[in-house]
Amino acid sequence: MRILFTQLRALIVGLIIFPGVSLVALFFIPFKLQDRIRKTAFLWKWISFKILGLGCGAKIDITEDYRSPEFRTQPPYGLYVANHQSFIDIPLIFTAYQVPPIMKKEVLYLPFVGLMGWIAGAMPVARGSHGSRKRVFIQTKNRILVDRIGVQVYPEGTRSKTTRPKSFEEVKKTLLVFAWNEKIPVIPNSLYGTRGVLSEKGFIRPGRHLGIIIHKEILPENYATAEDFARACWTKVLEGYDQMEAKLGPLNENLS
After folding, report:
1. For 83, which of 170, 181, 212, 248 is 20 to 30 Å away at the CA?
2. CA 84 to CA 246: how far, in whole Å?
3. Which CATH number fits domain 2-253: 3.40.1130, 2.40.50, 1.10.3470, 2.60.40?
């Protein structure tokens, strides 16, 4: 009965919140991207809390942010990398900070979600298209180096088949190498618990305990090679995941 109630509540929340927020977001379209991101940050933060709390019945137990003050601007600067667990990753990140993500092209075709993603500055990519990946790489380079706007990316590509993030050897390092070459700081993020929010069939499983750790920025100039830099960035992601798993894993074990 609780599961059924959760699905109905999520449906009602979606039918009310998504159209409403989309309508409000339309007013910010005329602004330049940097101003639009800054002015709509409160909107994405608000809707993300509603999606996770009211819609999914999840609880964010851990939110830790170790960024230096100069990386807490709006919009934030740098390359933000995180492990990838589910569609819930972006709302969890948006509860802590708002950085436009690189996201699957198909997501932008979803009603209301696509519009909000575009207004928020998301960059769509077709994973199977070399041309699309190349175009997004160029967009990312311009966003960070020219516009000074941060970009959010998941180096794992397709999420891990297990609950644990992929190893360093398995992740895509193209943007991490790019960051080292261009002397762009990387801010590693560790996400925990979002994979358990949705079942394999897409049903919401309420009561999940979530966590996010935003690690201190890692500076390319402190590393002799791109390989060492990329490994240091992903090691932080793994360390944060393990830290949260030790605290929140037992709380999620007995949930159906």
Report:
1. 181
2. 19
3. 3.40.1130
